[in-house]
Amino acid sequence: MAAGGRSVTPPALSAEVRVARGTFVVDVRIELRRGEVLALLGPNGAGKSTLLAVIAGLLMPGAGRVHAGGRELTRVQAGRRPAVHVPPSARGIGLLGQDPQLFPHLTALQNVAFGPRAQRHPMRVASADAAAWLERVGLAGLGERRPAELSGGQQRRVAIARALAARPSVLLLDEPFASLDVETAPDIRELLREQLRSSPTTAIVVSHDALDAVVLADRTAVIADGRIVDEGPTARVFAEPRDLFTAAVAGVNLVTGSADGGAVVAAGGIRFTGRGGHRDEGAMIRISGGAPAAAVFRPASVVVSTRQPEGVSSRNVWRARVNGMEHAAGGIRVRTGPLPVVADLMPASVAELGLAEGSEVWLSVKASEVSLYRR
Ligand SMILES: Nc1ncnc2c1ncn2[C@@H]1O[C@H](COP(=O)(O)OP(=O)(O)OP(=O)(O)O)[C@@H](O)[C@H]1O
After folding, report:
1. Whole-angstrom Cα distance, residue 371 to residue 375?
2. Listed GO molecular functions (predicted)?
3. Is the CB of 21 under 6 A from ligand 1?
4. What is the whole-number distance in angstroms between the Cα of residue 316 and the centre of ligand 1?
5. Residue 4: is its pLDDT beyond 60?
6. Which protein residue's CA is at the shortest distance from atom 17 of ligand 1?
């Protein structure tokens, strides 16, 4: 009972996990409400799959506990034998791993019908259900093929259909769109969104892609080096990224520093003025005394010049060096340092400025295009 006498709904899924893999340690705690979708983003090797493996019961943590649907599934104290360990097949948790892991001897239809059959639906009903799922994932007519007769992307779609057809109360999806081509991925992403929205399924979607989080998830957690470094409503996480990885996947520049008189002072004494963040548009951050703060702005807002810009008091201006260039949507992304900032330019501008790796440049960004916030 909560204070005030109202009962508190327990989370549909909670996990508190500490697990070492060699010298790497994952130490995280997560909670999801019933029907909630959490995006778990993070760079390669951050510990995302490890966390899913513990929740699914495939990996025993060194210490921790996992609860789902009111049941205790894992409980182990450091240095002790596990007190509780429900085997993966009895957890009611669906895991769609990076490898589709279809049953090789079963047809696509039989693979998808496996979940409904295991739930004792009659063969006829399970097959009709499986055929409908295969149609939804764009594989109508391929139900009789075995996995070896399907492409990697088609196998992935069968695996998605199989995961959804089993209607698990908790679904763990490890990079579900990774091996799908760019034409198929949006359709399958949309299908997954509809299914997750219209069902009480609680889900974790592991991804490197901001689009997956934005389309699918109410909440986003960012994991780096085995720890959750940011967590919150998906819109907030991308509007106010707290670490460089999140900023990069959100497609924005993040400059961290300390607050000073309504501005953010970054390394090298570079001063950023801007708007006070999305919650109080227009207001400067009224923090001083060196509190940690950050400035966020889009790569397309950064103006690159070879001479010092003049008459730009409303702009933040600093000197930089071009560290590299790469393709970006509709143009060229110029990476600069020592303050890590990227600028998106049209190819003609890059040519006109004569930019190359090592070029010394001036960067500027209008204060009205910079958001400042506390960290
Ligand atoms: N079986 C293993 N034995 C030892 N170390 C492992 C094992 N599996 C994973 N690791 C290490 O644990 C760390 C976390 O791996 P994990 O697969 O959880 O990361 P991830 O965030 O899912 O990465 P990716 O995005 O590349 O899939 C990595 O440093 C990895 O090298």
Report:
1. 12
2. ATP binding
3. yes
4. 41
5. no
6. 49
Give yes or no for residue 47 CB within 6 A of ligand 1: yes
The closest-lying atom of ligand 1 relative to the alpha carbon of residue 26 is 14
Which residue type sits at 59? Answer: L
* 45 alpha carbon – ligand 1 mean position (Å): 5
Q: How many helices (H) and strands (E) does the chain have?
A: 9, 21
Tell me the domains of the chain and their CATH numbers: 13-238 (3.40.50.300), 252-374 (2.40.50.100)
pLDDT of residue 301: 92
Burial annotation 323-351 (CB, 10 A radius, 16+ → b, else e)? bebeebeebbbbbbeebbbbbbbeeebbe
Residue 68 CB contacts under 8 Å (≥ 6 apart), including other chains: 12, 13, 14, 55, 91, 92, 93, 169, 170, 202
pLDDT for the residue 2 = 41
Q: Whose CA is nearest to atom 26 of ligand 1?
A: 44
- H-run or E-run covering 111: helix 108-118
CB distance 99 to ligand 1 below 6 Å: no
In angstroms, the Cα distances linking 40 to 66, 248, 254 are 17, 15, 20
The residue whose C-alpha atom lies closest to atom 6 belonging to ligand 1 is: 21
State the complex-level ipTM: 0.94
* Alpha-carbon distance values, 314 to 272, 300, 363 (Å): 10, 17, 13
Which residue in the block uniquely carries the two structure tokens 């009659």?
122
State the DSSP code for 99: S
pTM higher than the cut 0.95: no
